Amino acid sequence: MESLSLLLEGFSQALTPINLLWVFVGAFLGTAVGVLPGLGSSMAVALLLPVTFSLDPVGAFIMFAGVYFGGLFGDSTMGILMNTPGGSTAIATTFEGHRMAKLGRAPQALATSAIGAFIGGLLATTLVVFFAPKLAELAVMFGPAEYFALAVFAFIATASVVSDSVAKGLSALAIGLALAVVGIDGISGASRFTADVPQLFDGISIIVITVGILALGEVLHVASRIHRDEKLTAVAVSGRPYLSRKEFREALPAWLRGTAFGIPFGVIPVGGAEVPTFMAYGTERALDRKRKDPQFGKGAIRGVAGPEAAGNATSGTAMGALLALGLPTSATAAIMLAAFQQYGLQPGPMLFERNPDLVWALLASLFIGLVMLLILNLPFAPLWAKLLLIPKHYLYSGITVFCALGVYATSAAVTDLVVVLLIGVLGFALRRHGFPLAPIMIGVVLGPLAETSLRNAMMSSGGDASILVGSPITLTLYGVLALVLVYTAWRKVNARARQDV
């Protein structure tokens, strides 16, 4: 009850007219920056950080609450409409979301994304308010062996589930891992696969890879077909910016499952919401295969609902981990930590004692920001969707320009422009030959985590490999993975047997 009374005091601060204005401005600007390809939610927070320096701390962080969730929705908006996610958190949403958009269901996909963001963020933020100390204990249970098991689970499960061909899925995963190991080895300090190019010593940015594989690859794919398929000059857009009762019932279980995936990962420092979003995507795809009329590959609404709820649930609990532990579990949270330090504040247990007014006003503003995001973006879904009515040769030319600007803005390096072009050609070739893209992205995102965790675990055990299966968490993860593989193999054998008959 004490938490509830403190939260109500926070609402009394956050619901003043000026603070409501800051939440609105933050949500609007966060969405606007998140929509730009290559920038994303973390860049939205970074770019708007200087804007808040003239505000008092409460007003500044209330504005950041709007930026925080607005940027995440902006990431998904461009992923759904243009197959160009603003950040890696929205990659899993993109696969089915863009298919929905190409079938004329862009407003429904955006509505699914907005409602999923609201549900995931609302449930996660509620748990942060009442159970932050308990959630924080989950992070303590994960060591290097557990992180490695988690990464292996994500690798194999994704590669085997998202493609009809396991060989293609594993090949795509290998490509992602190969891209992930370019640069300086963080443990030995040796350069790897850099061709002695100094600009590659820091590795290939996730932004460069995401834009190259998903955005430029899509641009080249469309360009190769634009004269053969005149239907590509325009996409029909249905103007209904809400979900029908049937669509809502279809999406609701996925929203809840995605939220369940995302909540624990907000307090586990694995780099962001990529892991739970891909796990939610893989789960929904696996469940879809059991249905009489599988929808994945045709614009499945659950393929948008699950990852979107997972991503925002992770972001909600990540804010709790930042406030309660001072632990930034994502790039966006790390920038928020820098914002706290700019005001002379250090997140952690003492923050609740020394600055309770700020903390509870910020937590209240997270709720307000979610509601503001829903109010702001649901009516605008048809407007965003009208971007698809622009003739393809104009639209994709503009996307290419924004991709180049987004990539160059992150590093100001011409090398990144060359690399993103080469990766774009690779993405085009993979599309042409039917390789799945999800294993590539999860290999890029989790490859460094898997490598570092494996090496740290082996060094801490003196080379004893039994440490990799020495805890209940690792045994559970490997056990579930084995069940997934057995089921996948059984399903493929049955499908082949039915074809032979």
Automatic annotation (TrEMBL):
Regions that span the bilayer: 20-39, 45-73, 109-132, 138-162, 169-191, 203-223, 321-340, 360-384, 396-429, 435-454, 466-490
InterPro entries (alphabetical): DUF112_TM (IPR002823)
Claim: Amino-acid biosynthesis is one of the keywords in the record: no
Protein name: Tricarboxylic transport membrane protein
Species of provenance: Paeniglutamicibacter psychrophenolicus
Ranges where the DUF112 domain occurs: 20-442
Record keywords, A-Z: Membrane, Transmembrane, Transmembrane helix
